[in-house]
């Protein structure tokens, strides 16, 4: 993140103060999944998918696993409709 006082990074579970951020750059090769909290429930990044360990937990790989899973669900639903 780039603020008006220079470049800084944020590596904390706390939300950053975004009031002074004037721009943002994303470096995909450095991106990683982090723990998130939604409505008081904490979710850690996945470590397995369909019973298999995920060796590469980069956002791109995990998103690909999700898309494959959803595509299979849609295909299965389509088969049920056409019967």
Describe, in short, the structure shown.
With 83 residues, the chain is an alpha+beta fold. The protein has one helix at residues 59-82, and strands at 2-3, 6-7, 21-23, 36-38, 41-43, 48-49, 52-53. Helices cover 29% and strands 20% of the residues.
Describe the structure.
- The structure is a single chain.
- Helices cover 29% and strands 20% of the residues.
- It is an alpha+beta fold.
- It has one domain (2-82).
Q: How many runs of DSSP E, i.e. beta strands?
A: 7
Helix content: 25-40%
Q: Tell me about the largest β-sheet.
A: 3 strands, antiparallel
**Which spans of ≥5 residues are poorly predicted at pLDDT below 50?**
none
Q: How many domains is the backbone divided into?
A: 1
Question: Measured on Cα atoms, how large is the radius of gyration?
Answer: 18 Å
Based on helices, strands and strand pairing, what is the structural class?
A: alpha+beta
> What is the general shape?
elongated
Task: Walk across the major sheet and give the strand order.
Answer: 2-1-3
Number of H/I helices: 1
Distance separating the two termini = 52 Å
Percent strand equals: 15-25%
User: What's the helix-strand series?
Assistant: EEEEEEEH
Mean pLDDT: 83
